[in-house]
Design goal:
Distance between the termini: 38 Å
Number of strands: 14
Helix content: 10-25%
Number of helices: 4
Strand order of the largest sheet: 4-3-2-1-5-6-7-14-9-12
Shape: globular
Structural class: alpha/beta
Strand content: 25-35%
Length: 222
């Protein structure tokens, strides 16, 4: 089931089954009117934060019976897939929100637990980054992917730690403005640590690249 076209939200918030130790710190990222998606066992995070998902998606191998009963009692649509499938639950959820016509996606709980799942989640999002505005959020930081010819503006985060990590063999034309260690039209190669632990020094900072794939993380500074 997709959001009602008469009152279609512009954002989706996906609750995945990773580690969330302090749900209250993520509460500001869930807005009234968001389309809330429980990604299998991540449904429990949605419920723990006091929200009822608009849909639950997955093979339900990690969703506890109590949480499932709660959403079924509220008549929440449950899109159940077989356990033997070619896509992860998060991939299925991303397909769902894209087909629903949503443009912005906030991802909660996609890290922690199994390393292979965390890395797969990150790389999966590269398939959607050119079509969707995706932000990954933990209690301590936000993360976004930046592709060829794109830029990212970071506002009101002065004093926060920012890191950039190349995810392609090379990232060309890296430019950082408003940071402790600026860069201008710099080439970064996969595996370099040059971009780790920079500091935002202005009210507004920017990151841009000419070619490649870059992971940008920014810490909380409150």
């Amino acid at each position: 089931m997709s959001p009602d076209s008469a009152a279609r939200p512009s954002r989706a918030v996906l609750f995945a089954n990773g580690l969330i130790s302090h749900p209250a710190r993520l509460q500001p990222w869930v807005h009234p009117g968001d389309y809330r998606v429980g990604v299998d066992g991540g449904t429990r995070h949605c419920l723990a934060m006091g929200h009822i998902p608009d849909v639950v998606i997955g093979d339900l191998d990690s969703l506890d019976p109590e949480s499932l009963a709660k959403v079924q009692a509220r008549a929440v649509p449950v899109l159940r897939f077989p356990a033997r499938k070619a896509h992860t639950d998060l991939d299925l959820a991303m397909v769902h929100v894209e087909e629903a016509g949503l443009q912005e996606v906030i991802l909660l709980g996609i890290w922690g637990g199994r390393l292979d799942q965390s890395v797969a989640n990150l790389l999966l999002l590269a398939n959607y980054m050119d079509r969707l505005n995706i932000t990954m959020v933990t209690e301590d930081e936000t993360a976004q992917l930046l592709g060829s010819g794109h830029s990212l503006t970071v506002k009101d985060r002065k004093g926060a730690t920012a890191s950039i990590l190349p995810l392609s063999a090379q990232v060309e034309g890296v430019t950082l403005v408003g940071m402790e260690y600026p860069l201008e039209n710099t080439l970064l190669s996969f595996g370099t640590t040059l971009g780790i632990s920079n500091v935002i020094r202005r009210k507004q900072a920017s990151i841009s690249i000419r070619r490649g794939l870059l992971l940008v993380t920014v810490s909380r500074n409150d």
